[in-house]
Design goal:
It contains five helices and five strands; from the N terminus they run E-H-E-H-E-H-E-H-E-H. The protein has a five-stranded parallel β-sheet with strand order 2-1-3-4-5, sandwiched between helices. Helix 4 links the parallel strand 4 and strand 5.
Length: 123
């Protein structure tokens, strides 16, 4: 099974998520932004994606739309992790196909719960 994929342009946030996922025994790759993420997504089918929304260039909603359109990636679970706590953002990403949305800074407990609800892990 492929690794998970973290997509976030903030290195500190991405690296913290990477460490939390490693603690949960979930190996992950990190793409620091949407452009590197699109390259990685062209080469692998990740087990799951942790996706930031507010990024320069393609934002996370556009990356999510790409994932849901691509037949290879369509069923990959996506957990959105963002600082945007607006109800319309939550409604938009959930209707676009995300399995969960967490607000930054995500705790390991909230991340584990979202991964469990998405069927990525079982606790």
């Amino acid at each position: 099974m492929e690794d998970g994929l973290i997509i976030d342009d903030n290195r500190q946030t991405a690296d913290a998520l990477h460490q939390m996922l490693e603690l949960l025994d979930l190996p992950t790759r990190v793409a620091y932004g949407s452009s590197p993420a699109m390259t990685v997504l062209g080469k692998m089918i990740p087990r799951f994606v942790c996706l930031d929304i507010n990024m320069p260039g393609l934002d996370g909603t556009e990356v999510l739309a790409f994932i849901r359109r691509d037949p290879r990636l369509r069923k990959v679970p996506v957990i959105v992790i963002t600082s945007d706590d607006q109800p319309e953002t939550r409604q938009h990403v959930m209707s676009a196909g995300a399995q969960a949305m967490l607000i930054k800074p995500a705790t390991i407990d909230a991340l584990e719960d979202a991964l469990n609800k998405a069927g990525i892990i079982t606790t």
